[in-house]
């Protein structure tokens, strides 16, 4: 299709010369793409969250990246099934950073209200950990936004390791206060905060804030690489 100059949905629906697709199937695809175009014009990102494979949802960043929110959580270190709970849920988007802290506004209603302002979700390993963990520990929490999981997106490009290693590979730095900290340190900071150490809580929130803000930087760097990896740029 690319060799024939069919690069967009509209190119496809207006084309009458796709000999390798039977007529009835072409009509079905035309109807599906017409609906998709209508949903895109209406900015209905949830439609694409339901219809597209999770491995393809990175493709939506070009359309919905300006309405994206990055999510990252910290926990007490235990599995959800063994008394685990989120200690901090951080969101970073067009309105800046917002932290929900256990005992201070961390509940499903408040988080989902903030998420409802956005069209697209960005996490690192969130499809496996963060989102299922919140669904297990916060009654009523759910989201049907399309989701860019940077863990799997980066691996598809050949990057290895966790978030901190990926940041280093892409030249993304952290503040002196949080450099070298990891998820285990976040658990220890929460324990110190529970004993009355206010500085520990401030550092935990700062650590989470840098996690979420850096996700946005990573997404902006990786998206062009992901797009280039499809080979379409040869035909544009």
Notes on the protein architecture:
It is a single chain. This protein has 236 residues and is α/β, with parallel strands linked by helices. The protein has two domains: 1-42, no CATH class; 62-228, Ribonuclease H-like superfamily/Ribonuclease H (Nucleotidyltransferase, domain 5, 2-Layer Sandwich). Helix content is 47%, strand content 12%. It has ten helices and five strands; from the N terminus they run ααααβββαβαβαααα. It has a five-stranded mixed beta sheet with strand order 3-2-1-4-5, with helices on both faces. The mean pLDDT is 95.
- Tell me the name of the CATH homologous superfamily of the largest domain: Ribonuclease H-like superfamily/Ribonuclease H
Largest sheet: 5 strands, mixed
CATH topology of the largest domain: Nucleotidyltransferase, domain 5
Distance between the termini: 12 Å
SSE succession = HHHHEEEHEHEHHHH
Total helical elements: 10
Count of DSSP strands? 5
Return the CATH class of the largest domain: Alpha Beta
CATH architecture of the largest domain: 2-Layer Sandwich
Stretches where pLDDT is under 50 for at least 5 consecutive residues are none
List the strand order in the largest sheet: 3-2-1-4-5
Radius of gyration: 20 Å
Mean pLDDT: 95
> In percent terms, what proportion of residues is strand?
5-15%
- In helices, the fraction of residues equals 40-55%
Number of domains: 2
The best one-word shape is: elongated
